[in-house]
Amino acid sequence: MAELNVETPRTSDADRMIVNMGPSHPVTHGTLHIVLELEGEVIVKATPQIGYLHRGVEKLGENLTYQQFIPLTDRLNYCSSLMNNVGYTLAVEKLLGIQDPPRSRVLRVLCSELARIGDHLVCIGINAVDIGAFTAFLYLFKERETIYDLFEMMAGQRLHSSFTRIGGLFRDIPPEFVPLCEQFLESCPRAVDEMERLLTHNPIWADRTKGVGAIAPENAINWGYTGPCLRAAGVAQDLRVAQPYLDYETYDFDVPVGTTGDVYDRYLVRTEEMRQSLRIVRQCLDKLKEIGPGPVIVDDYKIALPPKEKVYTRMESLIHHFKLIMHGIDMPVGEVYSATEAANGELGFYLVSDGTKAPYRIHVRPPCFPIFSSFDEQVKGRLIADAVSILGAMNIIAGELDR
Amino acid sequence: MAAINLDDSVMTTRLDAVVNWARKNSLWPLPFGTACCAIEFMSMMASRYDFSRFGAEALRFSPRQSDMLLVLGTITNKQAPILRQVYAQMAEPKWVVSVGVCASSGGMYRTYATLQGIDRVVPVDVYVPGCPPRPESIIFGAMQLQKKIEKETLMARREHIEQFYASMDRQEKLQLERGLTNYQVVREMVLAAGENGEQKIW
Amino acid sequence: MVIERIDEQLPGAILDRHAFRGDQTIVVDRAALLGVVDFIYREGFQQLMDVTAVDGGQRDPRFDVVYHFLNLTSQERLRLKVRVADQESVPSLTGRFKSADWAEREVADLFGIPFDGHPDPRRLIMWEDYPGHPLRKDYPLDGGDAFCSQDIGASYAPDARSLNG
After folding, report:
1. Which of A376, B38, C131, C146 is most buried, most CB within 10 Å of its CB?
2. Could you tell me the pLDDT band of residue A120, with boundaries at 50, 70 and 90?
3. What is the pLDDT of residues B73-114, one digit of tens each?
4. Alpha-carbon distance A45 to A34, whole Å?
5. Distance CA A256, CA B31 (A)
6. Does C139 sit within 8 Å of B194, measured CB to CB?
7. Which residues of chain B have pLDDT under 70?
8. Residue A344 maps to which CATH number?
9. How far is A7 from chain C (nearest CA, A)?
């Protein structure tokens, strides 16, 4: 374990030992620093220290226009960046009081669900690697590479897609997208089954995860848990069902719920969510066929850029383009909080507009921030090895934790 | 007495060449993953890109046992002293690959919190551009490093290594004198370098 | 509506209220905050989603501390605001909501708003002896780092900082 020169609390108690986990440590996802006070191998107190990836995103957002903030949202939860794009643009659209075209709404659902699958694949794969099961990771990453290929087709970038725009999407999907997506819909369930065969009934995996990090539902709610961690504790709260956005109420899917909230339940919930997301992707492809070709961005040149061929040939479109780039969108004065169900839980954006082109205040409510704040309570009285599996199941993404 | 033909059993070369050949083909990486680039690094290690092909599959998370420091992701001012510490703990020979624009120049984060390029605080050998770079780019960066190692003489890196350790001494002295945390000391050293028109603190 | 019931039960606690795009906001008197929070907790707003702040710049009082609550039964959301001047403190909600712990520490760190009765008032994001509170409007974006201003991209909205005052 890398012990670094960071101030550690001194204690006179001879039996007590201080171990620094991080900031450079294989299982600290991103950069976290946890000071563990141990008695033997039992954790007496854990003090997480965060802020090692605080990049000043919120301050930077106050100095950029609404459109320019989209690439920064990619880098919040970099395991499922498309979902952050969708969440942010929905917040700005709520502020503007507009809705994107139907085809764009279906595509947004499609890419959100693909991103959710990708996020869960990484979360489970890395959780297994941390505990010592390397094989599942290799199987899962093969599927994640296909998701990367799909994103690359959509947006031109594997990881940081910046695919959405205020009022719609950057562009429509290419014709090659649907066949590859169909192929993915066939191969991904096989990989999930394979992973389940490797993990679900594996006695080592069960020993390391069952009963570890169990949390009561009332306690989870009080800690501000959302997403798979809350559902694993037995609370069927999913914003896609509870407060539907992007017409999620028209899709047919189930919300898996656990019973104890331990690491094993979180794993099962995530696994089932991947299957449900695959169902939604299937329905999205059918809907796309039903809707047929159409615009993917609003037809309002005060919000969305006019198409390039019009900019080059028509005076009016050129002026719109210029106005939008130089002066930004005319924003109403007001404040909104918009929440979406991201892979980790409720991803909220709080925007305060003073009517200028840059937001007056932009605040991200990251799902893993409140979850990680309960780390001390979760690991207290447990072994140091349990801290590793709990940390993995919380799916801490430092980018959104520290912003 | 019959003449002994040594042609088949003896090869003459420079010491540098032999040592560098051995070094470049067994790089032990230390992934210092902080942000998004670490996800691409995972892809690079996983099934499709398989970094093991370059003799660099033995990941070591301890600085003592590794010789290629891969800095993957944004290094913030809070992380800077830790990066310096990790680099200082690495044994010779050691090289640094700065992966991604955040590590190389601060990238899109020109803010109070982000270090504007890790070369301000540690010596860097190879920069890999991209946000994040594709796994192919990171592999290409590692290959460029192999080329660089091939041409190196054993004494060539002495100067900047010595400079770096002198700056660590300076940091320690300043910390004792002023009674500050290591974060604040490195931050103030970087700020002073920026004001004096210097490019780095080492 | 919960807001009417707060008004009935705790008259004078709500200083101001408005709704925008379906988001209900109430501005609550600083002294009445704990009472209002207790009341809405009993009304079902059992999840404190988020605590943040907005720096009003020259405005008096300077800061808004913003709380977002969620009612898991009725799926209603409520935004609660408390106005505080510089150096004025806000009562901590950690007694009622565990999620307030880190969220309040973050606000205290980045805005310099102290929270009364917080069990662990250390800085969360920046280090202990970091000078200043970065999310205040008078704190420069680059934090005085000369390296930040070198070849700065043209895409940065140049007048945004002065607009935000």
Report:
1. B38
2. very high
3. 899 998 899 899 889 988 888 889 999 888 888 888 888 888
4. 10
5. 36
6. no
7. 1-3
8. 1.10.645.10
9. 11
Mean pLDDT across the stretch C13-41?
88
Instruction: Measure the CA–CA gap between A324 and A320, rounded to whole angstroms.
Output: 6
Pairing of strands C115-116, C90-91: parallel
Residue A24: inside a domain, yes or no?
Answer: no
Closest listed residue to residue A115, CA positions, set A141, A164, A78: A78
At CB < 8 Å, which residues of chain B contact A? 32-36, 38-40, 42-43, 46-48, 61-63, 73-74, 76, 78-79, 81-82, 85-86, 108-114, 131-132, 134, 181-182
Q: How many domains does chain A have?
A: 1
φ/ψ (deg, to 5) at A99: -135, 145
CB nearest B111 (choices: A31, A59, A71): A59
Chain segment A174-197, per-residue pLDDT in tens: 988 999 999 999 999 998 998 888
Cα–Cα dist A347/A114, whole Å: 17
| Chain A contact present for C104, CB below 8 A | no
Residue tagged 């996800």 (tokens): B39
The Cα A12–Cα A15 span in angstroms is 9
| Token representation of residue B8 | 């088949």
Mean pLDDT of chain A: 87
Task: Name the CA radius of gyration of chain A, rounded.
Answer: 22
Element (H, E) at A3: none
Positive or negative: CA dihedral A257, A259, A265, A268: negative
Q: Examine residue B93 and say whether the peptide bond preceding it is cis (omega within 30 degrees of 0).
A: yes
Which residues fall within 8 angstroms of residue A193, CB to CB, at 6 or more apart? none
Q: Which one of B77, B82, B108, B110 makes the best mutation probe of the C interface by having the most chain C beta carbons within 10 Å?
A: B110
Please name which of B174, B114, B124 lies closest in space to residue C145, comparing C-alpha atoms.
Answer: B114
What chain C holds in terms of domains, given with CATH numbers, is: 2-121 (3.30.460.80), 126-165 (no CATH)
Which of B53, B81, B56 is CA-nearest to residue B70? B56
What's the length of chain C? 165
Contacting residues for B52 by C-beta, under 8 A, at least 6 apart: none
A29 belongs to a structural domain = no
Question: What is the domain extent for residue A394?
Answer: 49-402
Q: Which residue has the tokens 């050129």?
A: A318
Chain C neighbours (≥3 Cβ pairs under 8 A) are A, B
Structure-token match 């599996």, residue found: A389
- Return the number of other C-beta atoms located less than 10 Å from residue B12's C-beta: 4
- In order, the DSSP letters of A215-260 are --HHHHHHTT--HHHHHHTT----HHHHS--TTGGGS-------SS
Q: Cα distance from B46 to chain C (closest Cα, Å)?
A: 33
**A389: in domain:** yes
Which residues on B lie below 8 Å from C148 (Cβ)?
A: 106, 110-111, 116
- Please, what's the b/e burial string for A11-47 (b: 16 or more CB within 10 A of its CB; e: otherwise)? eeeeeeeebbbbbbbbbbbbbbbbbbbbeeeebbebb
Residues 6 or more apart whose CB falls under 8 angstroms from that of A104 comprise: A168, A169, A295, A296, A297
* C149 vs C76, residue with greater confidence: C76
In this structure, what are the phi and psi dihedrals at residue A239, rounded to the nearest 5 degrees?
-60, -25
Q: How far is CA B70 from CA A2, B31, B124, in A?
A: 16, 5, 10
Q: What angle do CA A368, A374, A380 make, to 5 degrees?
A: 140
User: Amino acid identity, residue A116?
Assistant: R
Q: What is the pLDDT of residue A2?
A: 43
Dihedral pair phi/psi, residue C32, rounded to 5°: -95, 5
Looking at the domain assignment, is residue A289 inside a domain?
yes
Nearest CA in chain A to C134: A59
Question: What mean pLDDT comes out for the span A244-261?
Answer: 90
Higher confidence at residue A138 or residue A351? A351
Tell me which residue in A60, A346, A361 faces C141 most closely, judged by beta carbons. A60
Q: Do A224 and C99 touch (CB under 8 A)?
A: yes
Structure tokens at B88: 């200082």
